[in-house]
Design a protein that fits this description.
eleven-stranded mixed beta sheet, 2 domains, three-stranded antiparallel beta sheet, alpha/beta, Rossmann fold, disordered C terminus, 483 residues
Length: 483
């Protein structure tokens, strides 16, 4: 079977071919400003290769579901599934070699990013026996691999960068060929863009993007102006799957797409000004009433409240199966966190690496359900490492109240100090404190205690022998940390 597809024609009318088999080994980067024809190019590539290789499309704008009608892609609405279900779908996609479009259009931006990151990570973590070749197309890749943090949460940024880096850097051995498309090269993380060996550069106007595109194409800086002059649907191509020298290419037509969308100008409606005013102002109050939230419900009768309380008490005696299932999932998650907390060396890893290890183990145990986010995981991991789950519930709650003002990076060592202080121990285990802080440096331990004291979280006293006595205000117990 031939692995060559035609994506367009050069200036002489000669077909420009794309080697799909070579693409699987070398990856592709597409760049072009809005309106340059970037999505049209991706659609052409997907349509021409649809019968050759499995395709997975990450679609944040809802541009590609129309592939389903012509080529049988399965459209997955990201807003309709929980995180655990998205990961389970990704595993089944790899197992059954299904071509799919993950439609994220119904989600907010940060939800899109988290959903795509979990989906890509599950694709990457599929069992070895399911490492079949697949094209993974990520449109608007600057959202999922940003060069700067922007407005998204830090744990979200780390999660999505890890997923995109795995796709582009390590995906080849797992059969995953990344195709990333972006409007701005300057906004795309360099370690993601650098892994592509094939390039299709469309029209762009900003100097920083033109210079980066020219560098990737091996062009001199003075030739970068050529990129600014490209017409809509025209791209400069380079790479082992296309051509060894930069080549101008006009992308060919496609079969699917937004048929109802009108390009260019349209005639305005032939409506008299008075009639147009009537259309705009007629029954505005009715529209406002439709959009207004419903009025609050009236207060229930006392008898109804009493009956509701009685029924609630009956349900508490025998919790429903769904509640028991949720409780079982929570117990599994807690067991994984406790096992990680006592594992040798894991506290010396970064917080993001710990969280990824946690998610991987949850997937390995096939835990389906809501997962704690990174901040919640770090707090529970710190509590398990300090042994707070062995204390009475009220005591643990009191310690966590005192820890509310503690920075996340310092929570684990603070809890170790507080746990020892509550137990009335005469000395805090220096190794336990270092392990919780993820360091083997005595100097860092001293600076940690000094910082906690400046924050008013501990009181430190040092005697002439060099021993430090540490008191946690609010607990009233003393602990000594040998220097």
């Amino acid at each position: 079977m031939s692995t060559q597809i035609t994506i367009g024609h050069d200036a002489t009318g000669k077909p420009v071919e794309f080697d799909v088999e070579e693409l699987l080994a070398t990856r592709l980067l597409v760049q072009g400003n809005s309106g340059s024809g970037k999505s049209h190019l991706l659609r052409r590539l997907l349509e021409e290769s649809a019968g050759m290789v499995q395709q997975v499309v990450i679609d944040p704008e809802g541009d590609f579901p129309s592939l389903a009608e012509e080529f049988g892609h399965v459209v997955i609405d990201g807003a309709a599934y929980s995180p655990g279900e998205i990961e389970a779908l990704a595993r089944r996609i790899r197992e059954h070699r299904a071509s799919v479009v993950l439609d994220l259009d119904g989600l907010e931006v940060e939800q899109q990013i988290r959903c795509a990151a979990q989906f890509l990570t599950a694709l990457f973590d599929a069992p070895r026996e399911h490492w079949y070749p697949a094209l993974v197309v990520v449109d608007e890749a600057q959202m999922f691999a940003p060069s700067a943090a922007g407005e998204m949460a830090e744990d979200t940024r780390r999660m999505t960068l890890s997923a995109m880096t795995n796709l582009m850097c390590r995906g080849r051995k797992r059969g995953l060929a990344g195709i990333v498309a972006t409007q701005r090269l300057a906004k795309l993380a360099k370690n993601v863009a650098a892994e592509a060996s094939n390039f299709l550069m469309g029209r762009t106007f900003l100097d920083i993007d033109m210079v980066r595109a020219a560098d990737l194409l091996g062009m001199e800086r003075r030739q970068a102006e050529r990129i600014r002059e490209l017409e809509r649907g025209h791209f400069l191509a380079l790479g082992p799957a296309i051509t060894r020298l930069p080549l101008a290419c006009k992308i060919g037509p496609v079969k699917t797409g937004h048929q109802a969308r009108a390009e260019g100008l349209m005639a305005l409606p032939d409506t008299a000004p008075a009639d147009m005013e009537a259309l705009l102002t007629r029954d505005l109050a009715g529209d406002v009433a439709k959009a207004a939230p419903p009025p609050p419900p009236s207060a229930p009768r006392v008898e109804d409240v009493e009956q509701s309380i009685a029924r609630a008490e009956e349900r508490q005696v025998a919790p429903p199966a769904e509640t028991r299932a949720t409780s079982a999932v929570a117990e599994q998650i807690e067991a994984i966190i406790r096992a990680m907390a006592i594992e040798e060396g894991i506290s010396f890893q970064s917080a993001s690496a710990q969280y990824q290890t946690f998610l991987t183990r949850c997937r390995r145990e096939r835990i389906i359900g809501p997962m704690p986010d990174m901040r919640a995981f770090r707090r529970r991991f710190a509590m398990a490492g300090a042994g707070l789950d062995e204390l009475p519930e009220g005591t643990a709650a009191r310690i966590m109240e005192l820890a509310e003002a503690v920075e996340e990076d310092l929570l684990a060592p603070f809890l170790v100090i507080a746990r020892a202080a509550h137990a009335g121990e005469t000395q805090v285990d220096e190794e336990a404190l270092a392990r919780a802080y993820g360091t083997s440096s005595p100097g860092r331990i001293r600076r940690l205690l000094d910082h906690l004291e400046r924050q008013g979280l501990v009181v430190v006293r040092e005697d002439f022998g060099g021993d430090r006595t540490v008191m946690v205000p609010g607990l009233g117990d003393l602990a000594t940390a040998a220097e």
